[in-house]
């Protein structure tokens, strides 16, 4: 891992840079739990109302029968002159109204929608007689109407207000259900967040790894599956860091050890009696080997700490372009904006620019053998963009990501050439070292575009 990634990792790894309420996984879990709660609650309420319908109907029927029996007994044993006063007391104090049953009464039958009355009717008729009538409305007057016989031919209505028979209203059921549903959804949200938090933290750490950064160790606590997953991920990060460190040390050691024999070979070649043609060929090979060794060392050095400074990128790019134009067979067209500043090391920016140009020199020459290069340096949003394009054959789009990996060359796509395959990998490491990004694209006219975006630095004062 690069030193840049080491500085970017915080002491405590955040769950995710995206707020939890914007997490798709959280909402999928939340809605799944919420729907299950709503379905189960609806089924429970429906089953409860169905199960309690019969017992409640029998209970209410028994109360009505008792009320009718007591009222009939009170009327039967009261003196005729006192019945009017008794009826007034029943109406005002108990809400019980007594009316004579007339043959001309308009009696509304019990409808299918009135489950309570339909369930009560068999119980009432069983106890009071088959000729007992129950109705929700008589003579367009709503209420609970039940007939009873005081004497053989003396039949009356007993009327109660509907409110005395109604159970829990639908509105109250809805209110209670809404409160329970709200509490259940709050609980579902908490459960979903607790379940998804370890996954979000693991996904965020994996994204850091994919971007070349080194995440802080994941907490190895919680349920066994989460502990094992976090432990395995932490171990994988350590193994990858160790492999990367070992590879860097090996590259640095081998490259350093190869420099001495290469220098000796170059000296012996100068003192040899070979023909000039043979000397030139061997000198070219030694120079190429030395350049490859140099790239190995550059790649290894990028793990070392570096000190940054505020660079005037526009001025530096002018100097780099002027130096590169001295190279034979290289034609550079530059468009550089002034006043651009970034926080970086001048040595690293020179190395980045030279690696891209070396890559173009080897792989991006046009058909006439000239390395034509377009260099653009401009401000883009809050950053500074360096865009370097060649006029070669370009690269297949599905190979862009692979080209940024170490030891990758696209010889088949961009002409046969020798190299270490580290050129663009070094460019990527340098960009990440200063919180930059690298992207590849093809020119419509042919050729590869390498774009490097650095964060803009504040102006010097």
Automatic annotation (TrEMBL):
All copies of domain HAMP, residue ranges: 193-245
Residue stretches spanning the membrane: 25-48, 173-195
UniProt entry tagged with the keyword Transferase: yes
Membrane topology: Multi-pass membrane protein
Domain Histidine kinase per the UniProt entry, residue ranges: 253-458
Localization of this protein: Cell inner membrane
EC main group: transferase
Keywords: ATP-binding, Cell inner membrane, Cell membrane, Kinase, Membrane, Nucleotide-binding, Phosphoprotein, Transferase, Transmembrane, Transmembrane helix, Two-component regulatory system
Gene3D superfamilies in the cross-refs: 1.10.287.130, Histidine kinase-like ATPase, C-terminal domain, Sensor histidine kinase RisS, periplasmic domain
Main location: membrane
Stored InterPro entries: 2C_sensor_his_kinase, HAMP_dom, HATPase_C_sf, HATPase_dom, His_kinase_dom, HisK_dim/P_dom, HisK_dim/P_sf, RisS_PPD
EC number per UniProt: 2.7.13.3
A Pfam family it matches: HAMP
Gene Ontology cellular component terms for the protein in this record: plasma membrane
GO molecular function terms listed in the Swiss-Prot or TrEMBL record: ATP binding; phosphorelay sensor kinase activity
Domain of life, per lineage: Bacteria
Catalytic activity line of the entry: ATP + protein L-histidine = ADP + protein N-phospho-L-histidine
Protein name: histidine kinase
Lineage start: Bacteria, Pseudomonadati, Pseudomonadota, Betaproteobacteria, Burkholderiales
């Amino acid at each position: 891992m690069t030193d840049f990634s080491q500085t970017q990792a915080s002491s405590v790894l955040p769950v995710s840079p995206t707020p939890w309420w914007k997490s798709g996984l959280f909402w999928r879990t939340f809605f799944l739990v919420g729907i299950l709660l709503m379905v189960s609650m609806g089924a429970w309420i429906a089953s409860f109302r169905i199960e309690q319908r019969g017992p409640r109907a029998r209970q209410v029927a028994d109360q009505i029968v008792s009320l009718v029996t007591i009222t009939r007994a009170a009327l039967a044993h009261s003196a005729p002159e006192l019945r009017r006063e008794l009826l007034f007391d029943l109406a005002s104090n108990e809400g019980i109204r007594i009316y004579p049953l007339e043959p001309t009464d308009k009696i509304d039958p019990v409808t299918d929608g009135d489950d309570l009355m339909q369930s009560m009717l068999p119980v009432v008729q069983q106890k009071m007689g088959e000729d007992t009538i129950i109705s929700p409305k008589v003579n367009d007057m709503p209420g609970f109407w039940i007939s009873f016989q005081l004497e053989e031919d003396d039949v009356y209505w007993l009327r109660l207000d509907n409110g005395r028979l109604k159970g829990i209203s639908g509105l109250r059921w809805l209110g209670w259900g809404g409160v329970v549903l709200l509490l259940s959804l709050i609980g579902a949200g908490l459960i979903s967040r607790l379940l998804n938090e370890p996954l979000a933290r693991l996904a965020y750490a994996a994204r850091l790894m994919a971007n070349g950064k080194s995440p802080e160790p994941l907490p190895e606590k919680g349920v066994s599956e989460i502990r094992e997953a976090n432990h395995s991920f932490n171990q994988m990060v350590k193994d990858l860091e160790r492999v990367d460190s070992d590879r860097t040390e090996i590259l640095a050691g081998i490259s350093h050890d190869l420099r001495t024999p290469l220098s000796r070979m170059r000296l012996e070649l100068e003192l040899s009696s070979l023909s000039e043609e043979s000397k030139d060929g061997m000198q070219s090979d030694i120079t190429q080997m030395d350049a490859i060794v140099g790239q190995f060392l550059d790649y290894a050095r990028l793990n070392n700490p570096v000190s940054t400074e505020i660079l005037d990128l526009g001025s530096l790019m002018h100097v780099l372009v002027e130096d590169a134009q001295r190279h034979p067979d290289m034609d550079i067209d530059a468009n550089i904006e002034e006043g651009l500043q970034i926080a970086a090391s001048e040595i690293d920016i020179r190395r980045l620019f030279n690696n891209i140009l070396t890559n173009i020199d080897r792989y991006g020459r046009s058909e006439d053998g000239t390395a034509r290069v377009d260099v653009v340096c401009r401000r883009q949003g809050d950053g500074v963009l360096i865009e370097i394009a060649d006029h070669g054959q370009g690269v297949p789009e599905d190979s862009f990501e692979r080209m940024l990996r170490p030891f990758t060359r696209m010889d088949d796509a961009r002409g046969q050439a020798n190299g270490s395959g580290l050129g663009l990998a070094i460019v990527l490491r340098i960009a990440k070292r200063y919180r930059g990004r690298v992207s590849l694209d093809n020119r419509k006219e042919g050729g590869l575009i390498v774009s490097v975006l650095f964060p803009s630095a504040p102006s010097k004062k």
